[in-house]
Design brief:
There is one protein chain. The protein is mainly α and about 150 residues long. The chain has one domain. The chain has a two-stranded parallel sheet with strand order 1-2. The protein is globular, with a radius of gyration of 15 Å. The two termini are about 15 Å apart.
């Protein structure tokens, strides 16, 4: 499961559709509707939010809006209302790690998109998040090739 801190506009089709599915899975986990993924590290920051379901709904709402921009037909009924619009902090170290990770993926999977974004030094974040200083988040599972 990868719940990107980056704005979803940067994702290729494969990554974008996976993000939608994974965010819906995260919502199901937060609602107690699954057996697995209950301790997945990507959920730490949502669980720490004062309104976890509202936070994941806000996360999904941005993905849904991006899907509409792309002409995709993602089902709005798959997630609930956003009642609490307070953000979640994400470190600049985490954002840089994710950007490097995404650029590595795109270099293998979608060269045109990699070329489009590779000169971006400070990518936009998902609007749910607020940048603060710091290293890669403790919950991140670091990969040797990233």
């Amino acid at each position: 499961m990868r719940l990107w801190s980056l704005h979803p506009r940067y994702l290729d089709t494969k990554g974008f559709v996976a993000l939608w599915r994974e965010a819906l899975l995260a919502r199901a986990v937060l609602r107690g509707e699954t057996r697995g993924y209950k301790r997945h590290p990507q959920l730490v920051r949502f669980r720490a939010h004062r309104a976890p379901l509202s936070a994941i709904n806000a996360y999904l709402a941005v993905i849904h809006a991006e899907a509409s921009e792309r002409g995709y037909s993602f089902d709005r009924a798959k997630f609930g209302p956003v009642r609490d619009k307070s953000g979640i902090e994400v470190t600049d170290g985490q954002l840089l790690y994710e950007w490097t990770h995404l650029m590595n993926k795109l270099s293998r999977r979608n060269l045109a998109l990699h070329r489009r974004w590779h000169n971006v030094r400070t990518p936009d974040i998902h609007p749910l998040f607020e940048i603060c200083g710091g290293p890669v988040e403790e919950w991140e599972r670091l990969r040797a090739n990233d």
